[in-house]
Automatic annotation (TrEMBL):
One of its GO terms (biological process) is RNA modification. GO terms for molecular function: RNA binding; zinc ion binding. Residues 547-639 form the DYW domain. Keywords: Repeat. PPR repeats lie at residues 18-52, 119-154, 198-232, 331-365, 366-401, 468-502. This is DYW domain-containing protein. Belongs to the PPR family. PCMP-H subfamily. The keyword Repeat applies.
Length: 639
């Protein structure tokens, strides 16, 4: 060993003349994660007069797998063959695992096929290899073969019986296959075999159902688990946070605290912070930040990055920058999160300045960093800067543009009114244009009232995804802007004919104490709804005194102007803001999160409400943040 102290201990306590002593050293080094030293010990053994035995090879091969050392793995394979141990079940299983982790599935399969009598470890190794290398169908077919062999066996011993450990890679394959029916079948098999009490099985099943889009069943599996560990709690919280169930994730975290079953850790905090970011739960986010500091996790790069992301998405970019500056260690994700935060708040100059600092600090920006930069340029209308970094990322940083990068550029050109340039870029791009590309072009056509580009984009989108209501709505709006009412009606008729329902708009607002209230357009279900509408009428009168006139261009119905004004007056963000003003102290910031892009009338209304109430109003839509202060918006009316 290169470690002097270890050398002394080795010389003092290890019998160099005993193969058992050598095997113990190799095994201990491998178990402690010191794989390179384990391989050096095996090399020293081979240089001695001793011959390796059956126990010398598994841990040596596992060490090769741990550091993906294919050359050493092949040498160990050859020597196991020379000494007659290649067909040993434990040696062959280790070889299968090693070749799989080195990406050599063909070699792994050859070893497996040459095993005369396979046991559950052999099957588990090869199935895990295919699942790990993103070959879920092959992994599941192998599991089917394993079941057939088990069924044909006269006596099934413990060495051959499928157990919980063997089922984990099968569930991993289910996660990758994204086939709900297969996952449900495997779930039934687990119940039949009585394996559901295994906490590892429960955790894997939660992940499998979530990857298949069955978050509800993931939650049922979690609820039915008789035994849960911190991984169980972290898994279900992360699953909910990542799949649009942010409030449920926060509620589960609170249940975790109350249950006293396990102590939460850094991964728990990161998952709950993500839920706070998505739901705009600033108060809970601040509490978690304080808890992270108390647990001395402020230096943890993953928790620190999650804190940055939470503050940015909760409208507190200044707090995010303070958290960023306080981090002792930053990786590319930390820098990218802060750059993205500046971008979504319209602070493009700060985002570009931070990119320069990142490069000076020796951190190489990656594809995600450049998506954030291009997005920042898009929000600020910085066409030249955006094009510069789009070219620079390819020539200087070897980042090939993906669909996301092209989408940002199409959005940037489109918002700036350069629709022909945007369309030319789409025509020449390397990756196949997807819905994101064409919807960006369609949105630009809507913004600049270009019917021709709009129709071209819509045709492509309907070919790719006929069930997205947003495309019909945008095209209907384009026709309405052109006063082509028959075409606008035709779009709505197509929606009805194809069974496409419009995604309902909703807005969230958080009150003191961390409670989140949800509003929809024309809401009548909130307990304070009568007071809300009363105060909205009062505010509307004050806004008219300030010169407010309803912007009704976004209403596509061919009805009179007065009726259109009534429609826009009850949009969900207006109700949420009014409720927020009513239920917070004078001078405090009102923050609203909404799922759809804010319309022009709501944008004008928010500016005026901020002026007459002397409040800062922060509205986050799917694209960016709007900070309304004293009758102005941070976006400069460019959104």
């Amino acid at each position: 060993s290169t470690n002097l102290q270890l050398k002394k201990l080795f010389s003092k306590y290890v019998d160099r003349t005993s193969i058992h002593s050598w095997n113990s050293v190799i095994s201990e080094l491998a178990r402690s994660g010191d794989s390179e030293e384990a391989l050096k010990a095996f090399s020293s053994l081979r240089k001695s007069a001793l011959k390796p035995n059956r126990a010398s090879f598994p841990c040596t091969i596992k060490s090769c797998a741990a550091i993906a050392d294919l050359t050493s793995g092949k040498q160990a394979h050859q020597q196991s063959f020379v000494f007659g141990y290649a067909s040993d079940l434990f040696v062959s299983s280790a070889l299968i695992d090693m070749y799989s982790k080195c990406g050599r599935l063909c070699d792994a399969r050859n070893v497996f096929d040459e095993i005369p009598l396979r046991n559950v470890v052999s099957w588990t190794s090869i199935i895990n290899g295919y699942a790990r290398n993103n070959c879920p169908v092959e992994a599941l077919l192998l599991f089917k073969r394993q079941l057939i062999e088990e069924g044909e066996a006269v006596v099934v011993s413990d060495y051959h019986r499928i157990d919980g450990i063997a089922m984990v890679p099968v569930l991993t394959a289910c996660s990758c296959a994204s086939d709900k029916n297969v996952t449900r079948s495997i779930h039934g098999f687990l119940i039949q075999r009585g394996l559901m009490a295994d906490v590892v099985i429960g955790n894997s099943l939660i992940e499998a159902y979530a990857r298949n889009g069955d978050v509800g069943i993931s939650m049922e599996v979690f609820d039915e688990m008789s035994d849960r560990d911190v991984i169980s709690w972290n898994s279900i919280i992360a699953v909910c946070a990542q799949n649009g169930f942010s409030l449920e994730a926060i509620a589960i975290f609170r249940s975790m605290l109350q249950s006293l079953e396990v102590e939460f850790n850094a991964l728990t905090l990161s998952a709950v912070l993500l839920a706070c970011a998505h739901s705009g739960s600033l108060q809970m986010g601040k509490t978690l930040h304080a808890q992270a500091m108390k647990m001395r996790l402020g230096s943890d790069v993953f928790v620190g990055t999650s804190i940055i992301d939470m503050y940015c998405k909760c409208g507190r970019v200044t707090n995010a920058r303070k958290a960023f500056d306080a981090m002792e260690i930053r990786n590319v994700k930390s820098w990218s999160a802060m750059i993205a935060g500046y971008g979504m708040h319209g602070s493009a100059k700060e985002a570009l300045g931070l990119l320069a600092d990142m490069i000076l600090d020796g951190i190489k920006p990656n594809a995600i960093t450049f998506v954030s930069i291009l997005s920042a340029c898009c929000h600020a209308g910085l066409v030249d800067e955006g094009w510069h970094w789009f070219c620079t990322m390819q020539h200087r940083f070897d980042v090939e543009p993906s669909v996301e990068h092209y989408g940002c550029m199409v959005d940037l050109f489109g918002r700036a009114g350069q629709l022909n340039r945007a369309y030319d870029l789409v025509s020449k791009m390397g990756p196949e244009p997807d819905c994101v590309i064409w919807s960006s072009l369609l949105a630009a056509a809507r913004m600049h009232k270009n019917v021709e580009i709009g129709e071209l984009s819509a045709r492509k989108l309907f070919e790719l995804d006929r069930n997205n209501s947003g495309y019909y709505t945008l095209m209907s709006n384009i026709y309405a802007d052109a006063r082509r009412w028959d075409d606008a009606k035709r779009m709505r008729a197509h929606m009805k004919r194809d069974g496409v329902s419009k995604s309902p708009g909703f807005s969230l607002v958080e009150t003191k104490g961390g409670r989140v209230h949800v509003f929809v357009a024309g809401d009548r279900n909130h307990p304070q709804i009568e007071k809300i509408y009363g105060y909205l009428e009062e505010l509307s009168a004050r806004l008219r005194e300030e010169g407010y006139v309803a912007r009704v261009d976004s209403v596509v119905h061919d009805v009179d102007e007065e009726e259109k004004g009534i429609v826009v007056r009850v949009h969900s963000e207006k109700l949420a803001v009014v409720f927020g003003v009513m239920n917070s102290a004078p001078g405090t910031t009102v923050q609203v999160l909404k799922n759809l892009r804010t319309c022009e009338d709501c944008h004008v209304t928010m500016k005026l409400i901020s002026k007459v109430t002397q409040r800062e109003i922060v509205v986050r839509d799917p694209k960016r943040f709007h900070h309304f202060r004293q009758g102005d918006c941070s976006c400069g009316d460019y959104w």
